[in-house]
Structure formats: structure tokens, C-alpha cells
Amino acid sequence: MTYKVAALYQFVSLPDYRQLKEPLKALCEALGLRGTLLLAPEGINGTIAGAAEAIDAFVAHLRNDSVFEGRFDNLELKFSTAEAMPFQRLKIRLKKEIVTIGDPSVDPTRRVGSYVDPSDWNTLLQDPEVILIDTRNQFEVEMGTFDGAVDPRIERFSEFKDFVRRELDPKAQRKVAMFCTGGIRCEKASAFMLSEGFEEVFHLKGGILKYLETVPEEESRWNGACFVFDERIALGHGLVEVPNLPVSEEERPSDE
């Protein structure tokens, strides 16, 4: 059996996020889905897997079910496949943030950088004034990244703001392009950088996964593999699983 995998997120006000845990869990269990979903006052984030029709039904329910009041109508979604179930169980977690930057003033629903579609990403990177930053942790960067990207050498995303304040200057770096796995970290990273006075901040819409899904390998500026937070470990061009990577459980980050 081939499983369909959905990586999703949306920043949206969820003051009742605690009350949404059980309906979301019940929906996933009824459809036989496994994976991890995070709920927080700022939105939803996660990756789930199951039969293709079950994933499609889940997305439809999330968007249209009256329980969720139509609030998940702007989901960022990436789909891939797996030959084996990539998750051992279902986990629905309540968090303070769906991706942790540790600064409550950073609000992607108010202001973020300019989205760049994967089809336009290579053109942006040709601009000599652009500094390209990988917002992911060092483990992920070492597995694969874009040509010429700056590695912030962080162990967790909450350290990104310290890297910016220590290493970057809005007067010197006027054009900043950034990327992450699925796009969610860049939502917060770009919002933070704008608040720090950086004038032009761009981020890859849909992240590395959308780029690998849509940009032909012969045109790609990506090198290596893209780490994903499930049992597949990493994906390559076309979102095909990269087999036999020598990665131990101790090395792997648990989530974003």
C-alpha cells in the first residue's frame, strides 16, 4: 500500500484551541490517520499520513466542518507519498506556538515577508544584492541546502533571532531571502526580520518541499536531501524518499 502524506499549517487565531483537540483527534482516528498535529492560539501545524482518500477527506473536513467554523480555509499544504506508514501513532499536541521563536510580539497574521513562488526562486537568487539564509537547524542544513546559503548554525529555531541580531545588519543586508522545510518557520522569521528594520525580506512559498515538488531537477539549485520529521527521514527531487541514510535516533530533531 502507498500512503499519502500531508504536511500542513495555517496561522489563524484559535482562542479555543484546547477545545479543538478532541474533535481533531476523533476525525483522524475515524479516518485511520497517523502523524503529529500541533494546535496553539496562533494556528495549526503538522504532518499526517494515511490512505489517499482518507487524507483528502481530512482536508475537506478541516476546511468545511462546522466544528472548525471555516477557520482552516487557507491551509498551506504539501503532499507526498510513502511506501510504508511513516508514523507509529497519532499525536495531537497543545502548544504555546505552532513553531517556537520565543517572541510573543512576532505575529505572522499581521505582517510577513514577500512570498516567492518556487518557479521564481532561482531568478531571485541571481540578484547579487540578495543574501540567502537557511532558517533551519544545523543538522538539517548539513543534510542539504541551496547553493550559497548562509548557515546560521543554530540547534533550534528559537535561536534564529539571536543569530540575526548578532550577525546581520539591516543597513548592510537590504535584501534577504530565506527558506525552510515547508514554509512555516519563514513566516515567523520574516515577520521578525521586518520588525528588526530589514527592508526587503523574501521567503520561499511552500518551502523546500514545494520547490522539490515543482522545480525540475535539471533546473534545481538544491543540493542534497531535505530532512522531514517522520520515518522517511529525508526527501529528494520529486519528493521521493532518499533511502538508507545513516541517521541515528539521537541525531534526529524531534520536530520544528
From TrEMBL:
Keywords: Oxidoreductase, tRNA processing. Transmembrane segments: none annotated. It is an enzyme of class 1 (oxidoreductase). Coiled coil: none annotated. The keyword tRNA processing applies. Its EC number is 1.14.-.-. It holds the Pfam family Rhodanese. It catalyses: uridine(34) in tRNA + AH2 + O2 = 5-hydroxyuridine(34) in tRNA + A + H2O. Residues 126-220 form the Rhodanese domain. InterPro entries: Rhodanese-like_dom (IPR001763), Rhodanese-like_dom_sf (IPR036873), TrhO (IPR020936), TRHO_N (IPR040503). Catalyzes oxygen-dependent 5-hydroxyuridine (ho5U) modification at position 34 in tRNAs. Belongs to the TrhO family. This is tRNA uridine(34) hydroxylase. It comes from Microvirga puerhi.
